């Protein structure tokens, strides 16, 4: 059994990464991960700063829990079968305009795309949480709680479920 077997198929996870050592409270790099299956892994979605701007850096990964400086994964949604392509499209919505949006950061991008997942489509909402501010506080608290372990490179990295799932 691989460690990735602990991830839920079609689970959408927040990924937090350390930016400093020792950790500075609430200072994370943010990403998303959509887990497809234990054998092939899933897709990592994030943006990164390149020069004076931002670029989308999305792609498949089969070893998400081995990512450098990863704090852990916090599940925020469960994607129904056959909705994976819709979610992928929503998570790529801002890719071509990242540098046109003021005050862009990886955290800002996360909440822009999560707001899209809150919208009802055909009677269904992917992200059930209605309060993104409360979700952000939950994510930050979880990240701060697990940051020292990540800084010490303790394995395995935690995989948890948000109380807003």
UniProtKB/TrEMBL annotation:
List, alphabetically, the Pfam families matched: DUF6914
Q: What InterPro entries is this protein classified in?
A: DUF6914
Domain of life of the organism encoding this protein: Eukaryota
Please identify the protein, giving its name as recorded: Uncharacterized protein
């Amino acid at each position: 059994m691989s460690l990735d077997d602990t991830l839920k198929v079609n689970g959408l996870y927040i990924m937090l990464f350390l930016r400093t050592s020792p950790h500075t409270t609430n200072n994370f790099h943010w990403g998303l991960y959509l887990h497809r299956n234990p054998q092939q892994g899933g897709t990592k979605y994030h943006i990164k700063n390149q020069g004076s701007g931002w670029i989308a850096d999305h792609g498949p990964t089969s070893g998400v829990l081995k990512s450098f400086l990863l704090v852990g994964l916090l599940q925020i949604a469960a994607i129904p079968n056959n909705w994976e392509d819709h979610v992928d499209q929503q998570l790529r919505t801002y890719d071509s305009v990242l540098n046109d949006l003021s005050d862009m950061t990886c955290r800002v991008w996360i909440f822009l795309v999560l707001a899209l997942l809150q919208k009802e489509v055909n009677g269904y909402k992917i992200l059930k949480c209605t309060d993104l501010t409360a979700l952000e506080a939950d994510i930050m608290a979880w990240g701060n709680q697990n940051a020292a372990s990540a800084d010490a490179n303790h394995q395995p990295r935690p995989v948890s479920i948000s109380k807003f799932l």
